[in-house]
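Tokens as discussed.
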């Protein structure tokens, strides 16, 4: 029996969503802090596409190391 997985990029945020972001960073060799993950989660408001967009911008800003401050600069929020 073959199992097909469907990725819902608009799924509600949960541990699984944060875990996806963390694994993507590990795969790309990017360091990300737990506080940066929380900030991405808060700014994305449940959208995986939004989370990946913020992550991409924060990676570019932080040159491979993503901090909470980088995420706040990208989103224009205060930390």
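Sequence:
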């Amino acid at each position: 029996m073959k199992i097909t997985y469907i990725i819902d990029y608009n799924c509600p945020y949960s541990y699984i969503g944060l875990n996806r972001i963390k694994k993507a960073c590990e795969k790309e060799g990017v360091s990300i802090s737990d506080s940066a993950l929380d900030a991405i989660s808060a700014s994305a408001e449940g959208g995986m596409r939004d989370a990946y967009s913020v992550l991409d911008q924060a990676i570019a800003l932080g040159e491979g190391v993503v901090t909470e401050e980088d995420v706040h600069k990208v989103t224009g929020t205060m930390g």
